[in-house]
Amino acid sequence: MTFSEFKQFHVNIKIRMIASFVTDVAEMSIFPFMAIYFSNKLGVTWAGGILTFITIVSIIFSMYGGFWADQFGRKKVMVAGYIFQTASFFIIAFANSPWLESVWLTFIMFFLLSISSRFIDPASEALLIDVSSEEEQPTMYQFIYWSTNVAFAIGIVLGGLFFNTHTFELFLGFAILSIFTLTLTLGWIQDHYVPNNIRDEKKKGVLSGLLSNYTNVLKDSRFMVLCLATLLVLSLEFQLYGFIAVRLNEEIHTSLLGFTIDGARMLSILIIINTTIVIFASSIIGKTARKLNLKTALFMGLLMYVVGYSFLAWNNIMVVLVLAMAIATVGELLFQPIRSTYVAQLATKEARGSYKAVSGLSMDAGQVLGSIGLMVSALLSNGMMTGLFLLISAFGMLGFYWSIQDTRLKASEEVAS
């Protein structure tokens, strides 16, 4: 991944990457800390209820966003979403300003901010597919994966430093940056997708049209198996913040060079290793992947990912844990861009927004499986949990193998350079 490669992308891809980077930094500076904010203001019970409600409604709006992106165009949906995002940031800033402090206004605007973010995602993803060739998609998704992780790291640091002490300034700063992303989208995004079925959907009505649209997506068995396989494999990563985090906290009590290493610090070390490898080694790993056959790179990455997280499920040796996280991260860097490429190629042109909305549900469902894994771990030993990880992963890899036999996957067997 080099700047010269970035320059070769279509202007839509470059603008989308810049806008998404700014948005991801803003969201990671705020979203992870809102649970603390609502807990302090309203109590744990209210905070949990609010965040659960927002998550469920956001998923619904993601489905509508994908549907409307297919019916009315990508740019219109993105612009509408960015307008609501910008307004939300300004009002949240005002609700936490020296002139006003309102937790309920903050809740309403945070709700609007969350649903607008999910509303935009399928349209922006479909926009990428519209203007990218099958050969350049693996490289494009490598760039996106890298920039997303860099944005997340920056956002977490900014939120940790300023959320509690400079809430007003933080929200105001991101409100101003939201104007920038809205301006970029309005002025430079070129929507090449022309909807050809608006009249038919108007006759059906919005709800019936949406149901009809997603029924067709759900009937695509290869695509749905790919989504299910993604869910199963990615559920391992969410165990890091559930079962694995709890296990480390209970079992890790050691020291290194005079410093005490407990479970929480070990988890932090693993997350730092993951982020560091993604930020600084993505380019090298990407270049190596391009020398491999697409399917070889995919399954090599999946195998490394599974092996790494399986070791994290039972081992307590610090060096082994560090090595396991490094292997899992390299594996993820190998398979994730290729998985995204296959999703892009399976999505039909007239329903790409809807396909991407359904694909996004894999992450939501993966989080649910992560939570279930924590509950199941109370009944199983670490060794049995490791066996469960391997069983789930085996089904996931079989799903990947079956789904990518589809004749729509016409990309070259060599990853585009």
From TrEMBL:
One GO term describing the cellular component: plasma membrane
Xref: Gene3D superfamilies: MFS general substrate transporter like domains
Transmembrane segment boundaries: 21-38, 44-65, 77-96, 102-120, 143-164, 170-189, 223-246, 266-285, 317-335, 386-404
InterPro entries, per database record: MFS, MFS_dom, MFS_trans_sf, MFS_Transporters, Sugar_transporter_CS
Keywords: Cell membrane, Membrane, Transmembrane, Transmembrane helix, Transport
GO terms assigned for molecular function: transmembrane transporter activity
SUPFAM superfamilies linked: MFS general substrate transporter
UniProt topology in membrane: Multi-pass membrane protein
Sequence ranges assigned to domain Major facilitator superfamily (MFS) profile in this UniProt record: 1-411
Any single Pfam family the record assigns to this protein: MFS_1
Protein's UniProt name: MFS transporter
